[in-house]
Amino acid sequence: MNKRGHIVNAVLLGAGIGYLLEPSGSIATLRSVFVVGIPIVLGALFPDIDTEFGTHRKTFHNVWVLAIFVAFPYYTGNLQYVWLGIATHYALDLLGNVKGMAVLYPYPEMYDIPVGVPVTSKWADVVTLLVTAFELAVVAGLVHVGRAELLRNPTLTTVVDSLPV
Ligand SMILES: [Zn+2]
């Protein structure tokens, strides 16, 4: 997707997660939307840096980049929500678009989930909103089944602690 699509997706997802974590409708909700939403938007902008540095849909569109941002808060206590922005960028590129990504870069194979539309399609905005709605449904499901902690503190430690073993 293009930059506008990624920003719309990340803003809606960040606001949605922020609200779902703090649905009181008070100033705490607004704070939660900013605390969660801004790092997600910044993370969602990161992969397309490879349009200028590297090869687009390859250099910063792979599992290694995501792994670095998932691991970063574990070691630094910082940037907790940025990986969610990177993950939603990948989700939108894989589900909403038809071009694919070199998920295992530098292995050059471009992988794609066979749904989505070209960036230039008149349906691109609709598809972006559908992917966002799907992501928010997943998040609402996690909150509903008592896994809000995964979103409140989305670090490797929390994920490992929440495993049923
Ligand atoms: Zn991209």
TrEMBL record:
GO MF entries: hydrolase activity
Any Pfam family the entry gives: YdjM
Cross-referenced InterPro entries: YdjM-like
Top-level division of the source organism's lineage: Archaea
Keyword annotations: Hydrolase, Membrane, Transmembrane, Transmembrane helix
Membrane-spanning residues: 5-21, 27-47, 59-76, 126-145
Keyword Phosphoprotein recorded: no
Protein name: Metal-dependent hydrolase
Organism name: Halorarum halophilum
